[in-house]
Amino acid sequence: MKKIGVLFGKERSFPTAFIERVNSKKVDGITAEAVHIDKVVQGDAANYAVIIDRISQDVPFYRAFLKDAAICGTAVINNPFWWSADEKFFNNCLAVKIGVPVPKTVILPSHDHPDDTSDQSFSNLAYPLDWKGIFDYVGFPAYMKPFAGGGWKNVYRLNDLEDFFAKHSETGQLVMLLQEEIVFDEYYRCYCIGGKYVRIMPYEPRNPHHLRYTSDFSPSPERLKEMEEIVLKINHYLGYDFNTVELALRDGVPYAIDFCNPAPDAELTSVGEENFEWVVETAATYAIERAASHQPNRDNLTWGEYVKRSANHQPLI
User: Are 7 and 65 found together in one domain?
Assistant: First the structure.
């Protein structure tokens, strides 16, 4: 029997519905359950053919467990090795290289020194930075947010340089991005599962959280196709099996705003019934596909085009 496991934290609606959906399909030799961990022994974590990871970004113990499982042949969704290495600034850099429009973005050293460092630890860093060049490039208004992580934590909208310096002083040891504001006409949150299934959802981030999926954006078939191609391209290069891409349309151009969401919100109360049904059904279908193709004691992870081309010394595009 091949088992599909779900590793999750506080959320309940998606994990429960996903397990029920997989099992309701009654695929011979495949079953789904909540992951159960009573010990983690090195090189001995092959109980699951597939694991859907919804929580390891917040629990380092789980990330270590998933890497052990991957070494033993589990198809972990998403790849825990790549997820550990990935962050938002790199994603923007990659997007630039593969021709996906993104806001003008710079990365900033933390306002406070990291623990166990001193002024001498930053011998290669200019002081002061070229603030004029940075501000001229990004412009104001701008957004400042952590270069890694998500969930709208520590996100600031900045009106001018005085506002920037005041807010940056509040960020402590966080490494921040300073990013051009994209004043958009339309906004979409796009699920991508398995590098092939895409759902483009109108989204209004300026609404209260429970109303963000309530909007009247109506893209043309041509625009939908363009956005789908961008979403697929990003996920093929990153190698994510389960991700969301946020696209903001300014003057008809889709800008990728946020596309490092490997455990995206899938709660029924957040995304609404129609989107929830799509995510549950599509995730179940894809997990069953991965379980059916699973090969014991092999690498069953998904690796993105960036990693594969780098390993083969090939150009990105």
Answer: yes
Residue 45 lies in a domain: yes
Residue 315 belongs to a domain: no
Residue 245 — left, alpha, or beta (φ > 0 → left; ψ -120 to 50 → alpha)? beta
pLDDT tens sequence for the chain (317 residues): 999 999 999 999 999 999 999 999 999 999 999 999 999 999 988 799 999 999 999 999 999 999 999 999 999 999 999 999 999 999 999 999 999 999 999 999 999 999 999 999 999 999 999 999 999 999 999 999 999 876 678 999 999 999 999 999 999 999 999 999 999 999 999 999 999 999 999 988 888 877 788 888 888 999 999 999 999 999 999 999 999 999 999 999 999 999 999 999 999 998 999 999 999 999 999 999 999 999 999 999 999 999 999 999 999 88
Which residue, chain included where needed, has tokens 């991508």?
Answer: 192
Running DSSP on this structure, what letter comes out for residue 30? E
Cβ(179)–Cβ(103) under 8 Å? yes
Locate all alpha helices (DSSP H) within 25-87, ordered by sequence: 60-71, 80-85
Give the whole-angstrom CA distance, residue 22 versus residue 165. Answer: 51
Report how far residue 191's alpha carbon sits from residue 173's, in angstroms, rounded to the nearest whole number.
32
Q: Are 193 and 280 in contact (CB under 8 A)?
A: no
Q: Which of 66, 8, 6 is nearest to 34 (CA)?
A: 6
| Cβ atoms of residues 201 and 188 within 8 Å | yes
Q: Which domain holds residue 35?
A: 2-81
Q: Are residues 76 and 111 in the same domain?
A: no
Last residue of a domain, one of 159, 180, 201: 180
DSSP state of 241: S
Q: Assess if residue 287 is contained within a domain.
A: no
- Distance separating alpha carbons of residues 178 and 183, to the nearest angstrom: 16
Q: What is the CATH number of the domain that holds 43?
A: 3.40.50.20
Number of structural domains, the chain? 2
**Assigned domain for 193 exists:** no
| CATH number of the domain that residue 115 is part of | 3.30.1490
